[in-house]
Structures are given as C-alpha cells and as structure tokens.
Specification:
Elements: H1 15-23, H2 32-43, E1 47-50, E2 55-57, H3 58-74, E3 82-86, H4 91-103, E4 106-109, H5 116-126, E5 130-133, E6 136-137, E7 140-141, H6 142-152, E8 158-161, H7 165-170, E9 186-191, E10 201-205, H8 206-219, E11 227-230, H9 237-241, H10 244-251, E12 254-257, H11 263-273, E13 277-280, H12 282-292, E14 304-308, H13 314-324, E15 327-334, E16 337-341, H14 348-353, E17 357-358, E18 364-368, E19 380-386, H15 398-404, E20 411-419, E21 425-430, E22 434-437, E23 440-443, H16 444-452, E24 457-467, E25 471-480, H17 488-497, E26 508-511, H18 525-539
Parallel strand pairs: 1-12, 3-4, 3-5, 5-8, 11-12, 11-13, 13-14, 14-15, 25-26
Antiparallel strand pairs: 1-2, 6-7, 9-10, 15-16, 16-17, 18-19, 19-20, 20-21, 22-23, 24-25
Helix pairs in contact: 2-3, 2-4, 3-4, 5-6, 8-10, 12-13
The protein binds 5'-O-[(R)-(benzoyloxy)(hydroxy)phosphoryl]adenosine.
5'-O-[(R)-(benzoyloxy)(hydroxy)phosphoryl]adenosine binds near residues 309, 330, 339, 436 and 441.
C-alpha cells in the first residue's frame, strides 16, 4: 500500500533536516543571481565563457544576465513562470539561464536532441509560458518546431529564438534591480531519464544546487586558471554542474562550449584554449582514446577527464590516462541529486574500479534488498539516497512520488550497487525500466507507447541489449496485429516521425509471433522485459 501524495511543485525537506543543512553551511541562502553578482565582482575581467566566435568576461556575462532579466520581465515573464529552454552549447545559454534566474523564472532544461513529442510534453507538464531556443541547430529547425508546439499548448505566450531580432531587444533592455527570489525555492526544472513513460521534471533549488556546484568545484580541484570544456550538451546535469560550467564559474575559471563532442572538435578546442578539464560519457571516452593515438593536436594542457553518465568499465578506465595524458575521475550522478566522484588522490584501484563516493558527508546512502533491508557490507543491492541536494519529490507527480521515494524521503535511484568500506560505490546494474544508451537514458515505456500507436502493432516490449560501444542498445520486440506485417525499418521510421529524439528510436526491432509466457497468468510488460533481456544475455 502506498499513501496518496499531493501534486506539489516542490516537496520541501523536513524542517529539522533543512535546519541542519543551513547550520552546516551547505545551504547558504544565496540565489544564482546573487552568486553571479559576487563572482563578477571577484573575477570581473577574467574570461567566463568562450564560444566558437565570442568570449565574455564575468562582468559581461553578469551585465547580459541583468539586461535579459529586465527584458524578460518586460515581456511579462516573472517569478515562478516556467520557460522551456532548448539551447545548444553557445554562450547565450549561460546568459539566458542567469537572466531567467534573476527574473525569478524557472528554466526547464530540454536537450537539443529532443524533438516535438518531448518538447510538447515538457511544455505541457510544466505549463510553460515560453520556449526559448535557436533558429537552427544541426540542421533541425528548432524555432519552427517550438512554434508548432506553442500553437498546440495554450499556456505558451512566447516563442523566443536567440537568433531572432526579438531576442536582441530582450537582451538590450534597461537593467534594473529585481526582487531576489527565495534561495530555498525552486530555481529550475531538470529532466529525469524516466522509467515510467515520459521523463519527469525535477525541481532543484538555488541553495541545494549551489551546494553541489561548490563541492564539485572543490573535489575536481578547479582553480581560476582552469579551463573547462563543455563537450556534452550543457543543459545536462553532468556538464552543467559536475563540476561543469557552473563549477568553473565558481572557481573563477573559463568554460569553453563545444558545439559538438567529437574528438576533432574537442581536440581542436583543447589545443586552442589550453583546456585543463572536461567530462564525457564512456563511448565518447573510448572514441577520444582511439583518436588521441593519431591526433596532431597538442593535448598536453589536459589534466582531468571526468567520465560518467554510464558505467565506465575497468578496461576503458585503464586506457584513459596513458592515451590522453591526464587523470581519470569517474562520476556517477543523477539529475535528481546525489553525485559521486572518485577523488583525485584516490588509489588507482578505486579510480579504475569504482564510480566514486558521494560529494557530501551529509549524503545518506543505503544499499538495500527487495524488502528495503540493508544488505551486509560489500553486498549488492538497490541504492537509496537522501541529502542536502537530492530532491524529495518530482514536480507535480504525487502518484509517482509515492513509489519513487521511501516514506522517510529516500530517493529510489533504481541503480544496483556494491559499496566498499571506503564508501566508494560500484554500479553493477539497474532495477529500473530504463536503457542507458551510452549515457543517454531511454525509458522503455515511452518507446513502447510510440510503437503501440502504429496500427500494425499489437504489443511491444523494449529492452536493453549489450553493446560493445554504447554499453547497451535498445531492442524492441513487437507482436503484430492479425494480418499486419510491419517491417523493422517501417517501425523505426514510424517512431522517428512521431518526433522523438534520435537516441530513442529502437536500434533493433524484432517481430515475434507472441511474447514468451511468463507463467503468472497475466503478462506484465515488466516481466516480459526481464525475460527478454535475460534471453538476450544468454544468447549473447
Ligand atoms: C547523469 O544523470 P542522469 O540523470 O542523466 O542519469 C542518472 C542515471 C543514474 O541513476 C545511473 O543509472 C546512470 O545514470 N549513471 C551511471 C553513471 N552515471 C550515471 N551508471 C553507471 N556509472 C556511472 N558513472 O547521468 C549524471 C549526472 C551528473 C553527473 C554525471 C552523470
């Protein structure tokens, strides 16, 4: 039995825990806007952000954010308004986000890879008043797609493109003092990887997120002369805050925003900007390791490569240092909160074999069996966590929250881990209905729903299958309706044309006459998925 929970925007921490986090100095009562003001005083003329063709100092970024905040308020976008942001890695991303923060509005961090169906879902779920995007990125007409979504969702009053004249006037507004939002209130909505249906929205507060940013900058040893390269899409939690562009700002360091994460682009920027630290997902780390062997670029400035988002196996981990001439730092994080890092002075076996230990002594971690009982030390179990920067509930998702969190507020990460005496965790598997496609998360149910919309599909079950490069790929098992003969290519095209991110289009489609019987009478998708995944592993 689970109790009904209300659909809150933000589930607060219990008062006694909040008091403890404040007393410990984890929460400092500072907003992102005030934080940028302080940074721009300390580092005014230092370079904060570097794009393909421009670079802004801290003072310039700060001034832009002030103008944008005023321009947004002039458009009627203010405290608590949700704005879906879909921007690629360009300096405008940071100016817009800080502008929104200063206006008290809540950015909703869509990724450039998201398409109409996801965008519409975010806008509807957040009841967004605006979408902020670019005209075209990687040959996709974002502004046009956003306008189509806006036309279908009544809450949306503005579609803004940073490439359009309207934005130029927003960004040229007369700056003025605006009321500072509540530091313990929501600052933005991050996206979850999702396991049931479409991704849930994750409300993060100024205080909680800034704590994780400060600690990440310290753990990754960022200094004013560090140079961080954002290779992955910057709206994602990893390049945003682990330690990411925000961690770099905290340290007074510069961030370089790479338009694409491939080795050619990244190595060119490493050489040009003397990049010292960056972060990638394992498949990208593998591609960089290979490319490093034949590059003529000077990568000697690189000190640290963070690898996370999906499991980095020992073999790959061991190749990174020698190939790239830098230190590997593993990171196991989640948009919901908890972030683990291997430390820069950890012994080699921990760096190569574990995904790190939590940021904070205030992070509470439990490794439990199916009945939520703590497993013996060193045993494998499900990871539960709560702490000063881990959410207590998703945005307006009472029913889901009742199962995604324990009664005492631990978040059920869905990850299976083993913990060492040092507190380092090793991710050994997953208990959630999600496929981790090289760091990109695919909710099985979301793809199944798209497939089931096809007239020739009676039933669908999406599972992860092992893949040498990505770790996992998606395989959709499909039972056709009587007389229908959909082909794999047709179904893949069908899913793509429903407007979903390319990484969610099933890599493999297998047409089967019927699903294997699971023996309990009712065939649940959950059991089917497990059975199919097990059969695949045995075959494979
Ligand atoms: C990061 O965040 P999300 O929200 O895209 O995904 C979180 C999930 C985790 O629950 C876990 O299943 C998986 O991604 N994951 C890893 C991992 N890092 C994330 N699984 C195995 N090994 C790792 N190192 O992916 C994220 C957020 C902040 C920093 C880094 C990654």
């Amino acid at each position: 039995m689970t109790t009904e929970l209300p659909d809150l925007d933000h589930t607060p921490w219990p008062p006694e825990l909040a008091a403890r986090y404040r007393a410990a100095g984890h929460w400092r009562g500072q907003t992102f806007g005030a934080w940028l003001t302080a940074l721009s005083r300390a580092y005014a003329e230092r370079v904060a952000v570097i794009g393909e063709d421009h670079r802004w100092t801290f003072a310039e970024l700060d001034a832009r954010a002030h103008r944008i905040a005023a321009g947004l308020v002039d458009l009627g976008i203010g405290p608590g308004d949700r704005v879906v942001l879909q921007l690629p890695n360009r300096p405008e991303f940071l100016a817009a986000v800080f502008g929104l923060w200063r206006a008290g509005a809540w950015p909703v961090f869509a990724l450039p890879a998201h398409r109409d169906s996801e965008l519409r879902h975010f806008v509807e779920q957040a009841e967004a008043v605006a979408i902020l995007t670019v005209d075209v990125h990687e040959r996709f007409a974002h502004a046009e797609a956003a306008r189509a979504v806006a036309a279908a969702v009544p809450s949306v009053r503005h579609v803004l493109s940073v490439d359009a004249p309207e934005w130029t006037s927003v960004a040229a507004a007369q700056p003025r003092e605006l009321p500072d939002p509540d530091p313990e209130g929501v600052a933005f909505l991050q996206l979850s990887g999702g396991s049931t249906g479409l991704p849930k929205l994750i409300p993060r507060t100024h205080d909680d997120y800034l704590y994780s940013v400060r600690e990440s900058a310290r753990i990754c040893a960022l200094r004013p002369d560090s140079v961080y390269l954002a290779a992955l899409p910057v709206a994602h939690n990893f390049p945003l805050s682990s330690p990411g562009v925000l961690g770099a700002l905290h340290a007074g360091a510069a961030s370089v925003l790479a338009p694409r994460p491939d080795a050619d682009t990244a190595f060119r920027l490493v050489e040009r900007e003397r990049v010292t630290i960056t972060g990638v997902v394992p498949p990208l780390a593998a591609a960089w390791v290979q490319a490093a062997a034949r590059t003529s670029r000077d990568l000697s400035s690189l000190e640290v490569l963070l690898v996370g988002g999906a499991k980095c196996g020992r073999e790959l981990a061991a190749r990174i240092g020698p190939a790239l001439g830098c230190t590997l730092q593993q990171v196991f994080g989640m948009a919901e909160g908890l972030v683990n890092y291997t430390r820069l002075d950890d012994p080699e076996d921990l760096v190569l074999e574990t995904q790190g230990r939590p940021i904070s002594v205030a992070d509470e971690v439990r490794v439990v069996d199916g009945a939520d009982r703590e497993v013996p030390p060193g045993g494998t179990g499900a990871l539960l966590t709560r702490g000063p920067y881990t959410i207590r509930g998703y945005f307006r998702a009472g029913a889901h929250n009742a199962t995604a969190f324990t009664e005492d507020g631990f978040y059920r990460t869905g990850d299976l881990v083993r913990r060492r005496a040092s507190g380092h965790v090793e991710v050994v598997g997953r208990a959630k209905e999600q496929i981790n496609r090289g760091g990109e998360k695919v909710a099985a149910e979301e793809v199944e729903d798209h497939l089931m919309a096809h007239a020739g599909v009676l039933d669908a079950a999406v599972v992860g299958v092992p893949d040498e490069f990505l770790g996992e790929r998606t395989c959709a098992y499909v039972v056709p309706t009587q007389g229908a003969e959909p082909t794999a290519a047709e179904l893949r095209r069908f899913v793509r044309e429903r407007g979903v991110a390319a990484f969610k289009v099933p890599d493999l489609v297998e047409i089967v006459a019927a699903f294997p019987v699971t023996g309990v009478g009712k065939t649940s998708k959950r059991e089917l998925r497990a059975a199919l995944a097990a059969a695949r592993t045995e075959k494979g």
